[in-house]
Structures are given as structure tokens and as C-alpha cells.
Write a structure and sequence with these properties.
With about 240 residues, the chain is mainly β. The chain has 4 helices and 16 strands. It has a 6-stranded mixed beta sheet with strand order 3-4-5-6-7-8, with no helix packed on it. Strand 5 (about 85-90) and strand 6 (about 95-100) form a beta hairpin. This is Adhesin.
């Protein structure tokens, strides 16, 4: 069917015109047919599937006179019960892909994590959520990870302070451990205001197969003072072992 607008269709059926078979086909094909098209059902709502050899579900045009759509949504891989949704540009390149398992790919059709980006990232900021929270700034050690085994690597950012008292501390740390009681390492960058005792410290603690990462303020900041932290996971031991 040729792309024909309503005004052109009307001309074929004006008084005195003799519509051809093609005119009737264009008219019929331009309409929605409930049985043939099956777009809407009470159970599934709007239903879409590719037609013929095309893999497109939806196409978006700046103008219907354009030869190629600006954007397209298609199933990938085609003819698979475990297909995902692929958003492509006018050149057919994938820009946004949702895999059947929920993984998202930006610029890739093979996301290996919840979000996989094939390209550079520009962000205002980031916070780790492997573990986060607040512990008392009482000078005592507090666990900030669950019980661990095997090898782990974390990034920690932590802050504590008392407004109006001139005591503040901020710490950034990279913590690596190859099982507990190993030659583990923690690289710390620490800033503080006032005495050096205002600083924040981080350490590994525990046995070979059961250990945690701990944090503390090096002094008691007083009642109600809380040390806030965010932990980012840098190594997935279970997945790395399976590779």
C-alpha cells in the first residue's frame, strides 16, 4: 500500500470519480480492522508484533514523507521467546536496549550487568549503595559490611562533624582483602578540621573465612553525633570465579 493521506483518498471517491481496485485497497488498508489487526484486547491491552520480514514494532518519523524513520523499536533477538526491546536510530544502530532479564544496555546489545554502557559517562555525582548508613561517632569500631568470605574490594566515603564546634572529618578509602587475616590493604585519603584525633579510620577485622570492614571516628564526637558512610562494591567474587 502506498502512503496516502486522507485528502488524497477522498479525491478517489468524489462525485463522478470511478474508484479503481487499488483505490479500494488503499482505503481498506488505511483502516483499523479489529479481527485482522487484533491491536486491543481486554486481557493484553495494546498488542504489537512485527509484520512480514520486518523486525519493527513501532517507528517514529519527523514526516511521513521521510524514507527512513528517525527512531524504531524492535524485538531483539527476533523470533525468540526471550526477546528484549531495542531502540534504534535512523541508521539502525542500537541506542537503548532492555534485555529479557531486565539488564539494560546503552550502545550495546549484550549488557553483562544491570546497566552496561558502551561509551563514556558524565554524571553530577555518585553514591555507593552496597552498604550505607550511619553509626555512632563514639570512637568505637562498627561493622559497615555483612560477614565476608573470599576476596573483596570496596570504595568507602565517610563524613562526620559537629556544627559550630570546629570538629569535622572526611575520608575516602579503597579497601582490598584476599580473605580475612591476609595481607589486606586499605588506602586512605583523610581530611579533618581541628585536631588529628578528629579523623575517621577504616580497618579489616575478623577470621580467615569470616571478616568485615569496620569504621570509627578516632575520638568520641559526643552524644548524637553520627558518622555517615557509603560503600561501593568494586569486585564480584562469585561471578569472577564462574568466568
Amino acid at each position: 500500500m502506498a502512503i496516502t493521506n486522507r485528502e488524497e483518498l477522498k479525491k478517489n471517491f468524489e462525485k463522478g470519480a470511478i474508484p479503481t481496485q487499488n483505490d479500494f485497497e488503499d482505503l481498506i488498508d488505511s483502516m483499523f480492522h479489529k479481527q485482522d489487526d487484533g491491536l486491543v484486547s481486554p486481557d493484553n491491552g495494546l498488542s504489537l508484533s512485527p509484520k512480514g520480514d520486518s523486525s519493527k514494532l513501532i517507528t517514529f518519523f519527523n514526516s511521513l514523507n521521510d524514507f527512513k524513520p528517525t527512531w524504531s523499536i524492535e524485538p531483539y533477538p527476533k523470533n525468540s521467546s526471550a526477546f528484549g526491546l531495542n531502540l534504534t536510530d535512523k541508521n539502525g544502530e542500537s541506542k537503548f536496549f532492555i534485555q529479557s532479564n531486565g539488564y539494560i544496555g546503552l550502545g550495546t546489545l549484550n549488557p553483562s550487568e544491570r546497566l552496561t554502557v558502551q561509551g563514556n559517562i558524565n554524571m553530577h555525582g555518585r553514591r555507593g549503595n552496597y552498604a550505607s548508613g550511619k553509626v555512632a561517632g563514639d570512637g568505637q569500631w562498627h561493622d559497615i559490611t555483612p560477614a565476608l568470605n573470599a576476596c573483596h574490594a570496596f570504595e568507602v566515603i565517610a563524613k562526620i562533624g559537629k556544627e559550630g564546634c570546629g570538629v569535622h572529618a572526611l575520608t575516602h578509602a579503597i579497601a582490598l582483602s584476599t580473605f580475612g587475616r591476609s595481607s589486606n590493604k586499605i588506602q586512605k585519603i583523610r581530611a579533618y578540621y581541628g585536631s588529628f584525633r578528629n579523623r575517621i579510620d577504616v580497618r579489616w577485622k575478623g577470621s580467615t573465612f569470616n571478616y568485615t570492614l569496620q569504621i570509627r571516628s578516632m575520638r568520641d564526637y559526643g552524644e548524637g553525633s553520627m558518622l555517615q558512610y557509603y560503600v561501593t562494591n568494586l569486585w564480584w567474587e562469585e561471578e569472577a570465579t564462574e568466568m
